[in-house]
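This week, think about what follows.
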Amino acid sequence: MKISRLLVALFAVLALLAGACGDDDDADVASSGDDTDEAATEAETDTETETETDAADGPAIRIGAQDFGESAILAEIYGQALEANGYSVEQVSVGGFRDVLLGAFDNGEVNFSPEYAASMLEFLNGNAGEATGDADETVELLQSQLDSVGLVALEPAPAVDTNAFVVTQETADEQGLAALSDLPADGGDLTLGAPQDCETNPFCIPGLQDVYGVDLSGDFVPLDAGLVADALEAGEIQVGVLFSTSGRIADEGWVLLEDDMDMLAADNVTPVVSAELEEAYGQELIDLINEISAAIDTDTLTDLNRRFDIDKEDADDIAADFITEAGLGSEG
């Protein structure tokens, strides 16, 4: 009987030991399963992160905006669309002069800016009069100038924004003005208000002198671009140089004097980037920027300016609506 009891006790102990070993094996299997699941999760996370950051694997795109509404709107359009497609973007205010903008490119403060083909070409070539009415030809000439400063002009947008010489309906009726050729040769009693570069811009005072034989330099008032329309409305000037896409021209019922002797050239919106930025991201970035540009036409840009100038909406909100309507957000 004692032997039997000992055997029973021994079997019980062995059973307990076997159960314990079984629990350890099960724990090892569970632990191994947990490790596998964690590794798989980490791998998925790494893959997602790599996918999300592929487009941004390069320098931040620093967009230089000049100090007028349209430039701010365009900078936001390009910036927000690029951000939506995975690029890191910074907005930089660079003032209203091209020499300041080019200096910002040179010191690396900016590496992208929405520019205007004819105006930038003539600034770089010393007002040589090379710009034509053909956008592609003008951009090609522009690129020949940009090569020496390490910049690249991309495809021009359909949107054209030239200088617009504008008078009130009252002035047009009193002076008999419908076209630039109607302006008095000596300027008469007309005061011209325009951005500061009008004195050297070939599409402003020099252009009027060379093409039309009209000299408005004697009574010229240099103004910030955003103040010209207000000065015209207040009667402080009689001729104002606005952007042809300004929403205020139609809203105020002003008269845009016809360029009847073709002084103005193809000032299409044209993105300019640094050669380093182009090299960093390659054709994928260039194709995306060109796609954004292709969606911006003159009528659309005029309407966007109206929202900024008349309705007093913010440039970033205007751009966000445009991007949504044009389908320029990320497809992913």
Observations:
- Confidence is low (pLDDT under 50) at residues 1-33, 39-53.
- The first strand starts at residue 61 and ends at 65.
- Residues 20 and 154 are 73 Å apart (CA to CA).
